[in-house]
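User: Just a sanity check before I run the rest of the batch. Below are the structure tokens for the first item. I only need the designed sequence back.
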């Protein structure tokens, strides 16, 4: 998380994980020196600047914990629910979503499962598509409907509301694949999943664009 009053240079390591590690090493029984702390953060040796970095880190931790307590037990609002669903389907990690919304990792995971969203595979496997919840399985899709493509491991839009073609007697739909692909394709209806939750949101197609692979599972 960016530091409010600290002007960061590109080479400096002021991310929360690194600063937190430095704070822990400074507070241990045999603490590291402040010079060593500056070296870990890759900053010029300055006890004043080091103190400011640590102060802001602690203020941030305190703020996050306060916001988490405020959000604990609170139901998900409409905008927050859309954020969780769209961000997850667009490839953001569950941990990142939880941190950003000041929710526990457990609560976000539980919500995604309760919504019957697909478990994202670690990598795209065209020949062995990921399994999806039974609630997502359907033989009928509408033109313009957003669906989950197990073949491409991302959100797709149905271009044809009827069977586009049959391959080996297996019905296929013509789709437009979002994510990192951004291209037309075809897929068996058995490998497309309903995303009913999306129908309650006002969506832009660019919300599902990404250049990254999906790298996180619900575990």
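Assistant: Here's the designed sequence for the first item:
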């Amino acid at each position: 998380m960016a530091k409010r009053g600290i002007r960061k240079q590109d080479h400096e390591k002021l991310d929360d994980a690194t600063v937190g590690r430095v704070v822990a090493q400074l507070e241990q029984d045999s603490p590291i020196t402040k010079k060593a702390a500056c070296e870990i953060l890759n900053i010029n040796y300055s006890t004043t600047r080091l103190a400011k970095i640590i102060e802001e880190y602690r203020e941030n931790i305190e703020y996050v914990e306060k916001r988490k307590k405020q959000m604990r037990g609170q139901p998900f609002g409409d905008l927050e629910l859309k954020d969780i669903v769209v961000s997850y389907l667009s490839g953001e990690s569950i941990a990142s979503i939880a941190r950003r919304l000041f929710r526990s990792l457990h609560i976000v995971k539980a919500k995604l499962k309760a919504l019957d969203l697909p478990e994202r595979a670690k990598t795209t496997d065209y020949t062995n598509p990921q399994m999806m919840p039974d609630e997502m399985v359907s033989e009928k899709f509408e033109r313009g409907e957003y669906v989950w493509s197990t073949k491409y491991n991302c959100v797709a839009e149905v271009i044809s509301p009827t069977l586009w073609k049959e391959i080996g007697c297996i019905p296929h739909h013509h789709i437009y694949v979002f994510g990192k692909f951004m291209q037309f394709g075809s897929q068996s209806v058995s490998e497309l999943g309903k995303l009913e939750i999306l129908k309650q949101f006002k969506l832009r197609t660019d919300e599902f664009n990404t250049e990254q692979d999906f790298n996180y599972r619900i575990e």
